[in-house]
Amino acid sequence: MAKPYSELGKRSRKISSIASLCSAKLFILLAVFAILFVVLLHIQIIASTFDFTHQWRKALFTGNCTNGDQELEYSSVASKLQESVTFLPLKDLRYSSKPLQGHTWFMSSMQDTHEEGQVKYQEYPSKASKGRVLCIKGNDTHDGSWNSYALAWPHALPRNATLMKGITFVSYNHYNYDNIWHGLSAVVPFVAWRLRNNNNCSSSSPARWVLYHWGELRTTMGPWLSSLMAAAFGEPLNIEKFDGRVSSPAAAVCFERAVVMRHNEGGMSRERRLEVYDFLRCKARIFCHVSMERRRRDDEIGMTMLMRNGARSFKNQTAVAGIFREACRKVEGCRLTVAYAGELDFCGQVKLMKSTDVLVSPHGAQLTNMFLMDRNSTVMEFFPKGWLKLAGVGQYVYHWIASWSGMNHGGAWRDDTGGDGDGDVVCPFDENDRRCMSVYKNARIGYDERYFSEWAEKVARGVKLRKAEEQMLEKKTTTSSSCGC
Ligand SMILES: *[C@@H]1O[C@H](CO)[C@@H](O)[C@H](O)[C@H]1NC(C)=O
Ligand SMILES: *[C@@H]1O[C@H](CO)[C@@H](O)[C@H](O)[C@H]1NC(C)=O
Ligand SMILES: *[C@@H]1O[C@H](CO)[C@@H](O)[C@H](O)[C@H]1NC(C)=O
Ligand SMILES: *[C@@H]1O[C@H](CO)[C@@H](O)[C@H](O)[C@H]1NC(C)=O
Ligand SMILES: *[C@@H]1O[C@H](CO)[C@@H](O)[C@H](O)[C@H]1NC(C)=O
Ligand SMILES: *[C@@H]1O[C@H](CO)[C@@H](O)[C@H](O)[C@H]1NC(C)=O
């Protein structure tokens, strides 16, 4: 029975050896499959990861998502940003009691950028605006609280907004753009801003000006001021009217780059102001083809009476001119010119100021021309009765501009006889009563023959001395035709 057992055993050994042979083969086969599978799986994973990275990168760098949901989300965020642009009134009536203080009532939610000694300004887009541009809506010329402003990101401008290219100067003026003093005060900071950025002059000329007075749109500037600005920026002014540029009154305009000024010269140091007035004088003379060289005869003294007609004029211009002519005659080289500001165009005034060393004129906007004289020239000013006590600090503006532009204010004569006869209205109240200012404001000016005569002669002699000293020191006036920019 051992045989069958052994037979069985033999067979079973044979079977088992066959089986073990088979299982080894199977194992290798399975292992190969497994490795193959793992490798394929890896290739698959790597491939899909690469694909994902690629898509993700593409979306990140192009701002595009091939995935429909992401695209939807992106455009929905953009549209939410677009809807969140909030317009506020240009003129904030909450500050109507102090329209010029601090942030002012114009664009009251905005802060100015101010570096020591420099002009105060706002620029959009900027770091301060977090890259947002300035948008303005409405073109109301009667009520500034109907006009409004907002900041918006360039990729999410308000619906239907027009983007205006280039630099836009947005000016706030509390008075007006026709009076040359008030107009000049409003535009000086733009010139200062330009000089501050003078590393590239050609890139700081405005494509357009947007003018506001109390938030109301203004579309004109007086001819004197627009000529001066054309001279300063080297091209004719483009004053924005917003007519036909906006599709509907509800639509906004946004500015690729905007500079906003609302504090006049406020914040500027004396050095910065001198720089601006030197620049303007230089540009105005080039614009009007007035020679930059000194006059041939350095011992000549130009005394110019710049007369007004009507308000604050001399009651007897012939008499006053006679006194000054006589006084001038006493000083060798002195030459008197009598001119009427109203009869001269911008270049006429620039030419006249170039040959003037002493400007003689009643208090009034025509005195603004003084910065067009050579540096260190002299001004003589005249006031009607009552101004000293009643007119407030505003009466000193021509003392200020004399200091800012490097001129000597040679003093002021104040009439104490005015308001008596000669067509003038007499103030019915006590002469220190505030109500008298309306009577004295535009009163005409009398004269004091002896005082005028001595004063004029003294000033002329002073100028003669100064010019002689300057000549000895061989001071050179600006001869550069670039004016520094
Ligand atoms: C975004 O991707 C879609 C689909 O690929 C394409 O049609 C569209 O032009 C792309 N848009 C941009 C801004 O690249
Ligand atoms: C944008 O313009 C269209 C067509 O002129 C007008 O129908 C739509 O009301 C305007 N939307 C806004 C917010 O002004
Ligand atoms: C100055 O700016 C203008 C206009 O942006 C540009 O064309 C010009 O190349 C700039 N010049 C220099 C020297 O940077
Ligand atoms: C304001 O814009 C509207 C729309 O373009 C125009 O019809 C209107 O005349 C403008 N008003 C002024 C004062 O310019
Ligand atoms: C002006 O003054 C001159 C000279 O003093 C005098 O002759 C003339 O009568 C005066 N004119 C008037 C209108 O007072
Ligand atoms: C003006 O006067 C001041 C003080 O006397 C002098 O320092 C300066 O050089 C003068 N400027 C010119 C342009 O003559």
UniProtKB/TrEMBL annotation:
The GO terms this record gives for MF are: glycosyltransferase activity; pentosyltransferase activity
Q: Is this entry keyworded Zinc-finger?
A: no
Membrane topology reported for the UniProt record:
Single-pass type II membrane protein
List the subcellular locations.
Golgi apparatus membrane
Mind telling me which Pfam families this protein's record contains?
Answer: Glyco_transf_61 (PF04577)
PANTHER family, from UniProt?
GLYCOSYLTRANSFERASE, PROTEIN O-LINKED-MANNOSE BETA-1,4-N-ACETYLGLUCOSAMINYLTRANSFERASE 2
Q: What is this protein called?
A: Glycosyltransferase 61 catalytic domain-containing protein
Write down the species.
Answer: Erythranthe guttata
